[in-house]
Amino acid sequence: MRSHILVVEDETHLGAGIKWNLEAESHRVTLVEDGPSALQFMETAGDGVDLIILDLMLPGMSGYNVCERLRELGRTVPVLMLSARTLAEDRTRGFDVGANQYMSKPFELDELISRVKNLLQQNGKHRPAAEPIVADKPAIGRVEFGTVRVDFDTHECEVDGLHVRITSKELRLLRYFVDHPNRVISRSELLSEVWDMSGNFQTRAVDQFIARLRKIIEVDSGRPLHLLTIRDAGYRFVPDPVSPAE
């Protein structure tokens, strides 16, 4: 089963962005836009929510009051509180009402995802989806390029002989590139084929995942040899580069 995350955020574009990126990480996400709706959803969901991402300034009821009410009801679900407020007393009040972690806006997506993973693991609820890596593709087993060795069947990755952590979505993205070597692949194609989303969807998720993948497979992520950016076109995977990318 996938982890179920409740996102409580009244800024529509931000809430939608958080939801989309967490779903890209294989989580199940419910989005509500005010405090009373959050409490009502938690009442009906029972123990079916594994984590709450809770904005502080909400219509109808503040994030402080939502968190405090949940704790009064005996709900121990982890809460990651988001706020544009940066004063120490705001953080202190957040922790006092029962928040597990507190992040200030604006924040980096990678940090949010990292905190989500840590909270789920601490709560024993980290349950990534067991999804196929690429639909309608034959199993290709092991692949080696440069100093990288990847086993797509066991989800293991080694770089310079050392085991490195790679998520299922990063592995799915890498496999799509491996299946289409030396071809320029657009962001819209990656959204459609790897994320199963419309290529017209506006998001930076593809670029962020590419950056994360480069940190894993490239010797120098700032001067990639295998995963190249083709300006105004997309990306190209080169398994056997002849010379360093300029």
Describe this structure in words.
- The strands form three sheets. Strands 2-1-3-4-5 form a five-stranded parallel beta sheet, with helices on both faces. A four-stranded antiparallel beta sheet has the order 6-7-8-9, with no helix packed on it. The protein has a three-stranded antiparallel beta sheet with strand order 10-12-11.
- α2 packs parallel to α3.
- The N and C termini lie far apart (44 Å).
- The chain has helices at residues 12-24, 35-45, 63-72, 88-96, 109-122, 168-179, 187-193, 205-217, and strands at 4-8, 28-32, 51-55, 79-83, 101-104, 142-145, 148-151, 156-159, 162-164, 184-185, 227-230, 234-237.
- With 246 residues, the chain is α/β, with parallel strands linked by helices.
- The longest helix has 14 residues, at 109-122.
How many DSSP helices?
8
Mean pLDDT metric: 85
User: Main sheet: which strands, in order across?
Assistant: 2-1-3-4-5
- The appropriate CATH architecture of the largest domain is 3-Layer(aba) Sandwich
Question: What is the quaternary state of this protein?
Answer: single chain
The gross shape turns out to be elongated
Concise account of the structure shown:
This protein is 36% helix and 20% strand. The chain is α/β, with parallel strands linked by helices.
Task: Kindly list the characteristics that best describe this protein.
elongated, 12 strands, Rossmann fold, Arc Repressor Mutant, subunit A, 2 domains, 246 residues, alpha/beta, four-stranded antiparallel β-sheet, five-stranded parallel β-sheet
